[in-house]
Amino acid sequence: MPQGRLLVRAQPAQVEPAEGIGGLISIADLKVVLARLLPCWEVFKLSRALHALRLWGPDAVFDTEHVRLPFPCRVYTGRDLLALLLDHRHFAKVVRTVEPILASTDEGVVVESRSTTVRMEGDLGHIDTLLTVCSELGIARDMFIRTSNGESTVGRMVQAAVARFDPGQEMEWTLEALARYLAPSPGWTNRFGDYYTFACTLETLVSRRRGEGSCLGTHVPYVIVMLLRLDEEHNLLDKSSRTASPRSPRLISRRLERGQSADGTWPYDWARGLPGDPFPDSGRARTVAGLTLMGHHMEWIAFAPPDVRPSEGCLVRALEFLIGQTPLLVDSAVREYYHLLTHVGNALCHYAGVKAMSAYKLLL
């Protein structure tokens, strides 16, 4: 049971999309989708802010005079979004509830991911999702945080995630964040003295029934692929896990390819690997659900090695559907499902081989 001082990286480990992914779509096609996903909403919600930050990044600045806005209201910059989520003073000015999301404790900075009261602003949705977004964006360990009761750093968020880890929790986001901030350490010890490794926790995810989990189970293959990619450079896993883990996303890819419809969509019950209705409901909800399901899958596929992901033809058909259908959504649908639709935008950035802000500048 390894113990000792927790070593948090000064900069979280980064992972680039897999070889052969960038360039599958044009920047011109990407621009049309991103134009619908500017961080501009009539009603502020925490999940929208978090997903917008993940898509656009902390340095995003928008020239709104030359771009059509879906709603005549404030457009948040990346700095605005980061401050809202990591500085309680800014949070309290925008969010009308007195319930904070950041609190300093002896174990570190605890993030309240789910609201305990009903409020218009909503909640972050998943355990350690804020920390995961920080890790993906390369937010440094020593980045300043102002909590509801003190001053701290992102590193203290990592320490709290480690201390409070429970194998029964929803751990897809926690594992990615810890892998990025703790690499090359193969594991960690929680506040009860229990030692966990990335290999053993990954085995738990791999053994899950396909389709189980948040967002129709699509976050499970995402974290599996991400840990495999991080392992390539940082040796996080053991030999057994390194060999067995790719089988799960590889099987998922085969089922997605087998279940793909002629228009490029994947069925709601994608885990069965059979063609079917993209979503059981009708109308707008069906369209948005189909888009967001595909966006989630296309995100993890972008990081998967060639022998793990679907064929290029399958990906191109899916990309054509996303590019063709997302811009057709009415403004009210974009507003309501913004946080889910950012997964489409983020995925398309990978396949265009550019960051969202780089593509946005070409909109002007």
Structure description:
This protein has 364 residues and is mainly alpha-helical. It has a single domain (27-235, 242-354), classed as Alpha/alpha barrel (Glycosyltransferase), CATH 1.50.10. It is 46% helix and 6% strand. It contains 16 helices and 6 strands. The protein has helices spanning 27-34, 46-56, 78-86, 88-94, 129-136, 154-163, 172-182, 198-206, 219-234, 239-244, 247-259, 283-301, 312-325, 331-336, 338-352, 356-361; strands at residues 102-105, 108-111, 144-147, 150-153, 187-189, 195-197. Strands 1-2 form a two-stranded antiparallel ribbon. A hairpin with a 5-residue loop joins β5 (187-189) and β6. α9 (219-234) packs parallel to α12 (283-301). The longest helix has 19 residues, at 283-301. The mean pLDDT is 90.
Please supply descriptive tags for the structure shown above:
6 strands; two-stranded antiparallel sheet; single chain; 364 residues; mainly alpha; Glycosyltransferase
Give the termini separation: 56 Å
Rounded to the nearest angstrom, the radius of gyration is 20 Å
CATH architecture grouping: Alpha/alpha barrel
Structural class estimated from helices and strands: mainly alpha
Tell me the overall shape. globular
What strand order characterises the main sheet? Answer: 1-2
CATH class: Mainly Alpha
